[in-house]
Amino acid sequence: MPNSSENKIVTLFSGFIMELNNAESADEILDALLRIIRKVVNFKWIVIIDENKSVVKRHPKDFDVEIRKFDELVDWALSNRSHSFYPVDEEIVGLLPMIKGDHVLGMILVGLEEEPKVEEIDAMRVFSFLSATVAENVRLLEEVVSKNRLIEETMNYLHSILDTFPEMVIVVSEEGEIVYMNRRFVEEGDVEGLREKALDVAKQVIDTKVRRIGEYESNGQFFSIVAEPLKYRNTYQAVTTIMNVTSTKELERLKELDRMKTEFVANISHELRTPLAAIKAYSETILDSLEMLDPDTLKDFMDTIHKQSLHLENLLNELLDFSRLEQKALKLEKEESDIVAIAKDAVESLREKAENNGVRLEFESSDEEIKALVDPKRIRQVLVNLIDNGIKFSKKDAEDKFVKVRIEKKEDSVLISVEDNGLGIPKDKFDKIFDKFYRVDQSLTYEISGTGLGLTVAKEIVELHGGRIWVESEEGVGTTFYVEIPLKGED
Amino acid sequence: MVTIDKLIEKIEELPTPDFIVQKIMTVASDPNASAKELANVIMMDASLSSKVLKLANSAYYGIPRKITVLNEAIMILGFKTVRNLAMSIFTYSSLFAGSSESKIDRKRLWKHFIYVAVGSETLGELLGYPVKEELFINGLLHDIGKIALDVMSPKIMETIYDITSKKNITFSKAEDLLNVPPHTVIGGKISERWGLPDVITQTIEGHHNPKMFIDSLNAEVVAMVHVVDVVVNLMFPGDSLSFGKPNLSPDALNILSIRPRMIRKFIDKFKEKAKKAREFLEM
User: Which residue from B minimizes the CA distance to A9?
Assistant: First the structure.
């Protein structure tokens, strides 16, 4: 009855496929296989062994089979990939290898009371093949899934490590696209221009295949950028690390300031002590030997005491100005004044000192009189300071030392220059000389006296007038300070 | 020149499988048959039974214990394998029973039959084809047309052999040159006449051109026998009276979705199996 048997096969297959569909593990597939074989043939017992001949399924549950009894047959059937039935003792033992392609997954051993029919044998063979295929696929799938899970876990682990970095990390592809960014970059990388700068450094790395370092500054924030080449598949990428070094920079600045303050205190103590020591010494001499001193000598001594007290006053004024400046409390008292007269006065006040130092002091002006709205005392203070510097920083042993003061009237302003042929200032220090406490010669030798505040105060005064001060200098040749002040006062 | 019709007339003269072989084929394909029934049929011919038992116990199967009863042979090796054995014995006897006028080396032709049978079964095993025994019989009978040609017209056969060996060309090419009916067509006719299953007829007809049956239920079987036939012809040129380089059909590789790497693997395995098939060569 071919029709009925064909129908039976179709029914069996339908049931089996449904079971396989619902099976989620190799184990469930084997359960389905046992059930389907039960429908095909009446077995006394059934055992499924794996490729190492260990029992993975059995029915009845308590059925104890001595697999070793069939060892030879099992080996033969496995190596021949043959499905066969052996009469063993009183029963027929079916050996059905489970094969997927070239891979033996195990074998079904089934104990039958009587010889199976062709159809039953064929059905069992096909089912064992089918379940082997499905089981192998499920196993592969499980393997892939668990590998994927492992990969995912590892990825997450690495990601969380990268996320805890204090640095921002990005990876840039050959096409110049960011293919990875850590959380730090996502949270802190949104700084204007930073991304572009980092991409620029990364591009250099991709082009040159060597490490590159860059810096970036934006709104008072400093960033250090380090990019390393990374070979990925057949392309090069750039692992780019961005560090916000603002606090480091700030710390450096504060440290430097602290060092300068310490230096300043030492310096200023020395500066104050010098005139004080002179005053003390001369006044003591006068007190001890008043009756022995002739009036000329006495006058001389008193003169020195007076000069030194003036010097002391100057120093204290400078300090006072500075502290006002620090507190933003420096106020100008502007009035219509003649700049030429102020400058002449400043020059004259230092003429004696210049002569004592062998420095020629020259003065010239484009106009007889230049009227401007300024604080005359302060402007004089600035010029005295600049001329005094010129005298102080002259070359000790040089011949024909000079300080030239020139005044030139411009359309809306007056330009005053103070030129010397002294020691000069290194180019890289031009900015710093106006910083508080800064002295180009940082050694503590005090060869040249000064508080280191003069130019700071001068700059402040000039800027309060709405003007500007700058310097041109060449080391060993000389220095020219320029002060430009608007005629009509601050804009 | 010989026409196919004239040849077909001559097919009548070919030995037909006797009653017992036909009965074996029928019983082996009956889903409700039992081992006992098949055993009973084979036992009707005492010499066939003993030859079947001899092959069942041969190194090719390597059964760990000796089989003395046909019933057991059928149970252990399966219906289809036992059928294959009976068919092999019959084919062998018909190859050697024909006219002895021909000068072709029938032993080598037989070796080709067995190697393609063994090879097909091996390839089936490698590719995970569940009923690999079916491949054995298909491989065994694929060149049956050549036996027919030899029996019907030994002269043509000899001419073909002269051309293929001297010009170093394939059997099919020589058929073309001589304009003789191809062995695939002749074989197909015989298969039909003998009442063999469709799959065997299609394998015989399509084993040089698997594309013919690309949409058939039997496409895989035809393709596998084709691949094995090509490999065996390459390894043993001349056995099947074919020389030169046989064409490997890309369609066959597509049908089976195998890569050339797989063929190397197959060759290794085939060499191993062929060594064990010695008893089949000297029946």
Answer: B31
